[in-house]
């Protein structure tokens, strides 16, 4: 089944909203075995939408649209598609009753504009909307099928999952299943070189993707059912994990902070953070994980030398001799926060994020990160590139990954 996604709305073209619907639909359809080869965005214009439909059906047999099903005059999706399929619009009593119910919940009267949403192309399959006034619609004619979905994600996502997924499952012969393996500490090109023999396979396929938090290796298999696909994926997954070993930090929805926090919970160890150049980003990243309160005690942003001395107990002599940006200060910061917070683990950052403030000896991008784990103190020197935001973000990832590796040995 060759599919295409057609997102409708001038606001998308103007950049007023982010097109998250296309991302959601692409992922969901891939897992259902629908091959999406093209995505198109078109404004609220009937002629341009008609052109987009002609192009889409010249190369695909099923098209998924989002948007343009609202009550206003510029919502032309349903009307244009009805014309494309040479169907007249007919009144749907259930759709109208649903609109009445939704409007009643909002303490609003059904307007004449709302009533137009109760009309659907003749012979179409209505997808009644439990979260809004616009019903979705499926129209089929010979080898062409279009699935119209509302634009708001809070309406599109539940409608797709509850009503479109069963429809698609009855249509496709094979399913697609993907497994994602996440690695950190090795670049995309080198990772690809290490698994070049796997990249040429056709079922399952393996594809590397560079992400902010490392490299994602996606294994995708096609088969008659999910179990068949998982059996195809399993030996490839094992081979990849054996190749990359400690570089592998997780899979699928795992993040570095999730892996670190869950390991701390397993070890029953608590943690505190002392940050200079990262300005609280380490703490903020850790608290992305909802169970972090079990292990995260406190975070301190000690930007000035005075704060480092008063709050963390960094020695003035250390600052005078080595400077704030030094491995010595990073280690004293990590030890100081752990001891003052009474935690097993302390991590720290001190560096030069730029754009100014660097020197020949200590250039922009030089960052020292410190670690205190049950009395063991260590550091790592980083030489990072990019703008201020990039340097700070990379430093956070390095701290989390280095901590992950250290906690593995505990």
Automatic annotation (TrEMBL):
Domain spans labelled MoaB/Mog: 4-170
Stored SMART domains: MoCF_biosynth
InterPro entries associated with the record: CinA, CinA-like_C, CinA_C, CinA_KH, Competence-induced_CinA, MoaB/Mog-like_dom_sf, MoaB/Mog_dom
Gene3D superfamilies membership: 3.30.70.2860, CinA-like, MoaB/Mog-like domain
Family named by the database record: Belongs to the CinA family.
PANTHER family, alphabetized: NICOTINAMIDE-NUCLEOTIDE AMIDOHYDROLASE PNCC, NMN AMIDOHYDROLASE-LIKE PROTEIN YFAY
Protein's name according to its UniProt entry: Putative competence-damage inducible protein
Gene source species: Clostridium bornimense
